[in-house]
Amino acid sequence: MGQEANLAPTEAESLLAVLERNRRTFAWKTSGLDEKGLGATVAASSMTLGGLVKHMALVETDWLAVKLAGEDYGAPWDGVDFDAEPDWEWRTGATDAPGEADALWRAAVERSRTLVAAVIEERGLSGPASFTWPDGRTPTVRAMLLDMIEEYARHTGHADLLREAVDGRVGEGAPSDFTF
Known about the structure:
mainly alpha, 7 helices
């Protein structure tokens, strides 16, 4: 049980590796598009790749910065009236200039990485998030990370369909030379 046991990743390392793999695949599916590609829809859905990117920037912020770590939303989120316009990120992400939503998402990911590392260090995976559900339950750090992984898995599936319709890009994961 010597050195080999120490080579196995911890549970936190495993969860973060899966989250990063999902982020990387999402980045690949949504990268390098022009205005037309970012605003394209398929079938009866109004979902776009630009909207997905901006939505995931909001999810990173809401779920990991605010609800997990207890931080404020920050710009641009704190200036949006989501009661009046609940789909703001979806609508504006479809019309943002190429690179704008991506930059917002990448900044949210970087913020999340820093905050999640600090929260895991401070509270561990079994520790509490910084919010409580209306029924009085407080999720654990582990539960929040698993929910974030699930959110990426669902929306990367959406991005798969949209991207294939835009330019035929298919595949389960980013190629080894894709940098994120």
